[in-house]
């Protein structure tokens, strides 16, 4: 995997401190400033590698923490509720937001606000098995108007495995956050556990956030966070993002929402190459990856 698949980077991404940033919407200066951002006790940061269940978890957190979201009396989209740290496209003044503040980010652990290392603020890290994240990412690339080249699956796979892709390396991201978890007040959740048992995942997040919801409220959170309902929910489905940023005429952000879709696309040879890289880069960590809900195979 030494060859750099330049099509995957396509000129709009710039390398900065080990990751690739979308230079149309952020800059090294913006990212560097985040390290010095002041955090507060009540802050909640949702952290993911791209395509791992971010907007799903945004919806869950927002529903848990806002009665007005649960009962439909507030008309605020999830990106407004949980703005992106490094892609602050609406120029939100983070410092003037009332507590508790909520943020979303794809940043690696070492670029996060330094205060977080004093366990000031909570982090929810969502991880998805990398074969499904990669496939979801491949489709997402097609929605980004600032990527002009048509990228084939083979090339994308190379880019993903070598980490030369928007967001950087999946392996570096997950490994970094996992091995530095003691430095943070952090809850790890997986996309697959949310798929398997959404209610249990919601309760786990409630506990971490110190929010007590009655049975009915939990039911509402679960109901409104299903794939089917999120797809039709204008506050949650990211259809509010303009086509100039994300062209959803070419495909849906909420695409399939399943575990194991990679099996429909990856050849046996591609999967074997992937497994080899996975073993080399992650094999020493006690992380259990669920590649398919039917199989319960963990590695
Ligand atoms: S991004 O661009 O990084 O913020 O994307 P992200 O939100 O992390 O990931 C998008 C994938 O999450 C799926 N998704 C869901 N799956 C199951 N249930 C619900 N409710 C849900 N909401 C979003 C979304 O469909 C993308 O996965 P794919 O595999 O492409 O369908």
Describe this structure in words.
This protein is an alpha/beta fold. It has a single domain (2-257), classed as Rossmann fold (3-Layer(aba) Sandwich). It has helices at 6-9, 28-35, 54-65, 67-70, 78-81, 130-143, 153-162, 170-179, 191-196, 198-208, 215-224, 227-231, 268-282, and strands spanning 13-16, 19-22, 44-48, 102-105, 122-127, 186-190. A 4-stranded parallel β-sheet has the order 4-3-5-6, sandwiched between helices. It has a two-stranded antiparallel ribbon with strand order 1-2. α3 (54-65) packs antiparallel against α11 and α10 (198-208) packs across α11 (215-224). The radius of gyration is 18 Å and the shape is globular. The structure holds 3'-phosphate-adenosine-5'-phosphate sulfate.
Keywords:
two-stranded antiparallel ribbon; Rossmann fold; single chain; 13 helices; four-stranded parallel sheet; alpha/beta; binds 3'-phosphate-adenosine-5'-phosphate sulfate; 299 residues
List the helices and strands and how they pair.
Layout: H1 6-9, E1 13-16, E2 19-22, H2 28-35, E3 44-48, H3 54-65, H4 67-70, H5 78-81, E4 102-105, E5 122-127, H6 130-143, H7 153-162, H8 170-179, E6 186-190, H9 191-196, H10 198-208, H11 215-224, H12 227-231, H13 268-282
Helix pairs in contact: 3-11, 10-11
The protein binds 3'-phosphate-adenosine-5'-phosphate sulfate.
């Amino acid at each position: 995997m030494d060859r750099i698949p330049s099509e995957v980077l396509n000129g709009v991404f710039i390398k900065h401190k080990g990751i690739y940033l979308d230079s149309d919407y952020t800059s090294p200066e913006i990212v560097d400033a985040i390290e010095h951002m002041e955090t507060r006790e009540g802050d909640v940061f949702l952290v993911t590698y791209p395509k791992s269940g971010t907007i799903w978890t945004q919806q869950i957190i927002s529903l848990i923490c806002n009665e007005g979201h649960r009962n439909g009396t507030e008309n605020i989209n999830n990106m407004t509720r949980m703005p992106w740290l490094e892609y602050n496209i609406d120029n939100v003044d983070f410092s003037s937001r009332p507590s508790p503040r909520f943020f979303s980010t794809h940043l690696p652990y070492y670029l996060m606000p330094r205060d977080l290392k004093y366990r000031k603020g909570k982090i929810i890290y969502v991880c998805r098995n990398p074969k499904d994240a990669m496939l979801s990412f491949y489709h997402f690339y097609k929605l980004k108007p600032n990527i002009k080249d048509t990228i084939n699956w083979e090339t994308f796979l190379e880019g993903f495995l070598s980490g030369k892709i928007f967001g950087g390396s999946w392996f570096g991201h997950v490994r970094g956050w996992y091995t530095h978890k003691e430095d943070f007040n952090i809850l790890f959740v997986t996309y697959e556990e949310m798929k398997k048992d959404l209610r249990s995942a919601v309760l786990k997040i409630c506990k971490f956030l110190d929010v007590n919801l009655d049975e009915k409220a939990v039911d509402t959170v679960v109901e409104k966070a299903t794939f089917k309902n999120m797809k039709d929910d204008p506050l949650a489905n990211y259809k509010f993002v303009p086509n100039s940023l994300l062209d959803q005429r070419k495909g849906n952000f909420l695409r399939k929402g399943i575990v194991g879709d990679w099996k429909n696309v990856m050849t046996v040879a591609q999967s074997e190459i992937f497994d080899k890289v996975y073993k080399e880069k992650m094999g020493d960590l006690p992380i259990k990856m669920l590649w398919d809900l039917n199989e319960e195979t963990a590695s």
